[in-house]
Amino acid sequence: MVSTSSTTGKVGGRRRSTASVPDLVSRAREGDPRAVARLISLVEDASPLLREVMAALAPYTGHAQIVGITGSPGVGKSTSTSALVSELRKHGKRVGVLAVDPSSPFSGGALLGDRVRMQDHALDRDVYIRSMASRGHLGGLAWTTPQALRVLDAAGCDVILIETVGVGQSEVEIAGLADTTMVLLAPGMGDGIQAAKAGILEIGDLYVVNKADRDGADQVRRDLRSMLALADRSEGAWKPPIVKTVAQRSEGLDEVVEQIDQHYAWLRSSGELEKRRTRRARDEIEAIAVTALRERWGDVHGRSELDDLAASVAAGKSDPYAAADELLDAFTD
Amino acid sequence: MVSTSSTTGKVGGRRRSTASVPDLVSRAREGDPRAVARLISLVEDASPLLREVMAALAPYTGHAQIVGITGSPGVGKSTSTSALVSELRKHGKRVGVLAVDPSSPFSGGALLGDRVRMQDHALDRDVYIRSMASRGHLGGLAWTTPQALRVLDAAGCDVILIETVGVGQSEVEIAGLADTTMVLLAPGMGDGIQAAKAGILEIGDLYVVNKADRDGADQVRRDLRSMLALADRSEGAWKPPIVKTVAQRSEGLDEVVEQIDQHYAWLRSSGELEKRRTRRARDEIEAIAVTALRERWGDVHGRSELDDLAASVAAGKSDPYAAADELLDAFTD
């Protein structure tokens, strides 16, 4: 059990002011960006206070529409995200942005040079932007992102954009986290093959062909349309629209916002929103429970039972199934 | 509990002959490739017999050196793997090859066209080659690969090569599974940036500059050497060598085998082998225990307790930590 609710920062860094969790939460709810930042830092640091923070936030969650933005490097994700933020602001929405860097656990990830574009919105108090680079710590995206989303949601964001870098596994994870997944493509990038390979044709709720002023944009749209036509969709299912944009000149973003709104309306009326959110909560609960168990397994009876079992399996004296049984038995006793 | 140990294949497919697990294991130990294939299929299908299979194999494991082979697409991984198999055969080694396709859970993964090169070894009974494409099923690589390795190890392979396709996360996973990780590079592929990005400079025990007859091979070696020189290695630590090869003409493979041998000798003498294997067993036990728990959580008291908890969190009535506590309490009662 956690006995203190002080949120004092770490020794060594700049010492942060002490504030109670209820105080931080109420300041975040009033839109204080420093309180939001502090709460997300508690998430990234896997603070023991998280438990208290999440309990305090729970009643205020469920309001924000979560939009995942994904696509191959070079399609213009950052520019599109920035332009989309501007468009959403025109509609009076409060916007949160989580830029997620799925870097390897080793490289640490600092290749987000064009994150600076986001500085356009730096002075807007109704836009909250956060770059999350802490992959690997306790499960990466799977662990920290849902909790950071809860913070932004409770802080009153109407729309939260999650932007991911790169291709592959991270896109699939994003699709699991978002209410609406927006897949970006651009002409001249061999996206046809890339798209099929990464499976992004199965996760998009909305496709955006960016750089639509370039040669080949119509071809990308045609290819996309014929590939999407092959999908086996049931009656009443959402048909992902394809929108053309030139994000650099903010062209087509009104249409993107319109389609995001329509998708949200469909999610609500079809019952899909509740289904997606329940599934997401399920994954989150499981991840927390599994992490709690791993911590206990690592330190049973003062020493690590799991280490002993692992040594025995490594030596061929036991097999992993028998060892897993022993581990579970030791825990449920 | 499993009450039968028949290994009859699925209805619908070609009906396989029924064989008991002990029978299959003893045939695999004698080098019968069909028995090995059948055991790996049991792994891929997550057969309920796995528990019995792994118990029967355990006493025969720990003999094989596991070599991970990784690198960006186009560096010549398949050709190098094939040439390395030939070289290892010259040294009288029994060789296993697991070709792992880290495809997305959606696309299913069938881009392994050049796997046919492996056909060179198809008639050699001391070479066992298997392509594993079943990502996502129950945790992908993390779940099936260690068990397939156990099968090949118990079947008497001296060296098992794991070849992975693509870059990124899968390389890190491979490094966790292998005793020796071999990173392939080639000139003219922008590997400098790629390498740093994917973090492969931190996982290699051995670096191979393939296509060394091409322009720029020496430059790749020089870049690599200066980057490796920056690494902070403790006294007695392994210094990853850099070997040049032309795999297509089988040049330099003798040196690769020599370095793989030296690394294995160092692993043994330094105690690092035991450490790596214990860590691997630990991960494997955890994965099995967690999967067992997830199955139980999904179906407590005849209906899914976890689903109810998830619905309550999604509705903002509870938070994920409180729900995880409830889940663990329900389980330990």
Describe the structure.
2 copies of one chain form a homodimer. With 333 residues, chain A is of the alpha/beta class. Chain A folds into 3 domains: 1-60, no CATH class; 61-270, Rossmann fold, CATH 3.40.50.300; 282-332, no CATH class. Helix content of chain A is 46%, strand content 11%. Chain A has helices at residues 21-29, 33-44, 50-57, 77-90, 141-154, 169-177, 191-198, 217-229, 253-270, 272-297, 305-314, 320-332, and strands at residues 65-71, 95-100, 127-132, 159-164, 180-185, 206-209, 242-244. In chain A, strands 3-2-4-1-5-6-7 form a 7-stranded parallel β-sheet, sandwiched between helices. In chain A, helix 2 packs antiparallel against helix 5, helix 5 runs parallel beside helix 6 and helix 11 packs antiparallel against helix 12 (320-332). The longest helix of chain A is centred in the C-terminal third of the chain and has 26 residues, at 272-297. Chain A starts with 20 loop residues before the first helix and ends with a helix. Mean pLDDT of chain A is 79; it is low at 1-6, 8-15, 103-117 and 134-140.
What would the CATH topology of the largest domain in chain A be?
A: Rossmann fold
**Which band does the percent of strand residues of chain A land in?**
5-15%
Subunit organisation of the chains: homodimer
CATH architecture descriptor name of the largest domain in chain A: 3-Layer(aba) Sandwich
